[in-house]
Amino acid sequence: MEHIIKINLTGGYVSAGDLYEILLIAESAGAKHIRFGNRQQLYINISAKEIEGLEMEILRMGISYELDADTYPNIISSYVCDTIFSNEGWLKEGVYRDVFDLFNYQPKLKINLVDQQQTFVPFFSGNLNFISSEVSNYWHFYIRFPKSNQFYTWPSLVYSDDIALLAKASEDVIFSHKELFFDVPKINELFFYKMVSSRIPTSLTQRSEPLKLPDFYLPYYEGFNKYGNNKYWLGIYRRNELFPLDFLKDACALCIKTRIGQIYTTPWKSIIIKEIEQNNRIEWGKILDKFRLNVRHAANELNWQIEDLCEEGLNLKHRLVREFEDADMRTYRLSFAIKTQAQTGLLGSVVIRKQSAGSFAIQHTRDFNPNTKDFAQYKENVEEGCLANHLAELCRHYYSMTVKDTESAIVPKPASEAGNNGNHHPVYQCKNCLSIYDDRYGDTMNGISKGVAFETIEGYVCPVCESPKEDFLIKLA
């Protein structure tokens, strides 16, 4: 029998020295590998006979951990993107670390702290999602109530110093009133706001602009990459999700030797090492040679998210990737997620969701941006052996849409001035975040059933960025 030790790496980073100590403890308990999770946490599989000694050593180090449990989801962040995937804006290393230091409790809700300029770390996979705004040190705040797809947008921006207080107050309200805010179909958002805001004094700032989601692009996160002033970062992905302890020990030792302070984990279950000097690159290459590590996998293998510790999902991914490669299939700007369980919050513009043994549903976000979280059903009850063919068809559909948008000479008109044209079907697109309202699907986030014409909806607001109805432009699908 095996046990699973989970260690949360707050914000997705750990000092090389601390990680080295954790690796030594795992090694002494007989472990050969460790894993990293979707929420930038660390997993160690340990046999039952070794668990007592391992726990004593972890406690001696003062490290918080969980045994065979996930009561405390990790606080994830886009800190890993700083200087390599995100250079613009005010959100830098010091701000991240200041916010992390304000959390003097272990959150039971999933918390995301992300830079709106990047698309590497998911925006809305948490319950409490803080997204940087255009105003320095102020954040948009989106609440996804537990076991629900209902999102609530906090009516004002949140100051950096208030994030931890607001998160704690929100969590206290939700867990002390589960009958109102936990696993219920309809939530009174105004009542939630009043209860939370009455508990803490926060620095309220009116929204300057609604959140504008960037077009999704998954940067290639493997291998040696040059950045900044003649420095390199190294990304390492493992096809089987297992990182050998001996390799990580050597990597930590080289970090310490070359004065690299920390190692970053990613929501794609990989690691990134920054600040590699040109004259030390050869030493890193020798470590990769020593452990025969490949760092140039195909991009269509890197754009998948699988549930943590899920062999079923991992095996399905491997089969689909092989079939994608055999078909020479293009997946640029798309990401895929495999869900075998409910409410896993994985990032994906295309989601393969298990319905029963050997049967799956295929969903996609309506604009194919995985951060919008507004899904349309594509196929249901698809046999496992037919998944690749249906996914290829969906990818072709996506690229035909993008080509049509690029080549179209139609000038968008305001929704109030536009009408149908021939046999084309009109849809309405938010000019700020590019979300689409299509009456063939409706809008589940706003409680609008399919078949409801856009023109008949009074007071409509964008489910993603809350732009008013007047900001929607007609497009012909």
Give a summary of the structure in a few sentences.
The chain is of the alpha+beta class and 477 residues long. Helices cover 26% and strands 25% of the residues.
- For the termini, the CA-CA separation is 55 Å
Query: If you compute it from the alpha carbons, what radius of gyration comes out, rounded to the nearest whole angstrom?
Result: 23 Å
Alpha-beta classification = alpha+beta
> For the residues shown, what is the average pLDDT?
90
Number of strands: 25
Tell me the number of helical segments per DSSP (H or I, 4 or more residues long).
Answer: 11
As a percent range, the share of strand residues is 15-25%
Description:
The structure is a single chain. This protein is of the alpha+beta class. The chain is 26% helix and 25% strand. It has helices at 16-28, 51-61, 93-101, 163-176, 178-181, 189-197, 245-257, 281-290, 299-302, 311-326, 387-407; strands spanning 2-8, 13-15, 33-36, 41-47, 66-67, 75-77, 111-114, 128-132, 138-144, 151-153, 156-159, 205-206, 223-227, 231-236, 243-244, 262-265, 271-277, 304-306, 336-339, 350-356, 359-365, 375-383, 426-430, 436-437, 472-476. The strands form five sheets. Strands 6, 7, 8, 9, 10, 11 and 12 form a seven-stranded mixed sheet that branches. The chain has a five-stranded antiparallel sheet with strand order 5-1-4-3-15. The protein has a five-stranded antiparallel sheet with strand order 2-16-17-14-13. The radius of gyration is 23 Å and the shape is globular. The protein starts with a strand and ends with a strand.
